[in-house]
Amino acid sequence: MRFSEPGVPPLALIQLLNSDVLDPEAVAHFRRLIGRQGISEPELVQGDRQVPIRWFRDVYPDLDHETATLLGLAFAEQAQLTSFGPLSLPLVSAGSVSEVFELLRFLPIISSALRPHFHHGQLGLTVGLTGHTGDADLDCLVITYGGAALLRLLDVLTGGLPGVSLHLSWKAPRIPRKNADLFAGRLVFEAHASFIDVPVDTLQTPCRFPDPVAYRLAITELRRTLERRSSAVSFTESVRRLVEEDPGCGTSHNVAALLGVSASTLKRRLDDEGTTFRDVRQSLLRERAIVRLLDQSLTVSQIAKDLGYSDTTNFSHAFKRWTGQSPSAFRQAGRRQPG
Questions:
Q1: What would the pLDDT profile of 141-182 be if each residue is shown by its tens digit?
Q2: Order of strands across the sheet with 195-199?
Q3: By three-state DSSP, how is residue 75 classified?
Q4: In the chain, which segments carry CATH 1.10.10.60?
Q5: What is the pLDDT of residues 289-326, one digit of tens each?
Q6: What's the CATH architecture for 234-335?
Q7: Least enclosed by CB within 10 Å: which of 59, 68, 255, 281?
Q8: How far from 119 is each of 165, 229, 251, 337, CA to CA, in Å?
């Protein structure tokens, strides 16, 4: 297994396999895949490496968005406070809902398959969710799993947060699922983007097991871990992080200098990973634009400026190229989304 390969936390998968959610044939197939690595299940967990998300495609070769959604929800229903490796301790010791969401910034430590995007608006927090598996159906799985698992953990930590909702940008499964009441009223399908909506008055809701000292120490260690592992991630991810930190860093020459390589080396390394600097930057800008457009209090011109565009027209042209819709049309679709 490659550390940089998109995946899920190993303990979370083992907990799923030891539940009664999956059929015996699927469980046996997953265990054969583990065995092919030459390791046992305990060794898989102790190694603390992401389990490749492509294993789900191996086990479910006919996976589509409906099956992926049902799997993601079933997977999330098994989520425990212990499921997420280095993020488990700070999850337990968080003092508020806001501190729980702060931990999502360290998600790359345990999974590179899902990327959150944050926007604090007047009405609350919007967390955009984007899958990075290279497979549209697996993206559905990880977005559903990540978002729904967070709803479940928030319920455990606070005693219940009905106001927090998960919006998914595809149709609801036609097949009924078990335990449908667990997320009842908090799943919105056919949304114009995938995101978690957190009302502003919910952010300071206290958690049940606060430990400020443990939380602070855990955050410090998470920062160190993220820095140590930065050399193990793909070159594309390194570029993405730099652009994410400063969208205005602009050119590939600037990013190459920050990475200590030449512009030609930057281009060659990205080519080897099947992408370009422009693609990485445009993908990030698209994701940021979508999250900001969900906030109706921001004008399109404000968003364009925030993303580094010289004028609204250039931003509108770019957004339409990314999504097939103008920013205003995207917002109109959002107003009409099912509730």
A1: 999 999 999 999 999 999 888 889 999 999 998 876 665 667
A2: 114-121, 124-131, 195-199, 165-167, 187-188
A3: helix
A4: 234-335
A5: 999 999 988 999 999 988 888 889 999 999 999 989 99
A6: Orthogonal Bundle (1.10)
A7: 59
A8: 15, 26, 25, 20
Cut 0.70: pTM above it? yes
For residue 137, pLDDT over 90 is answered with: yes
Closest CA to 88 of 33, 35, 48, 60: 48
Which DSSP string corresponds to 244-286? Answer: HH-GGG-SHHHHHHHHTS-HHHHHHHHHHTT--HHHHHHHHHH
Instruction: Report the C-alpha gap between 183 and 164 in whole angstroms.
Output: 10
Q: Are strands 187-188 and 114-121 parallel, antiparallel or unpaired?
A: unpaired
Shortest CA distance to 12 belongs to which of 54, 58, 48, 64? Answer: 48
Q: Looking at this protein, which amino acid is placed at residue 28?
A: A
Q: Please say if the pLDDT value at position 338 is more than 50.
A: no
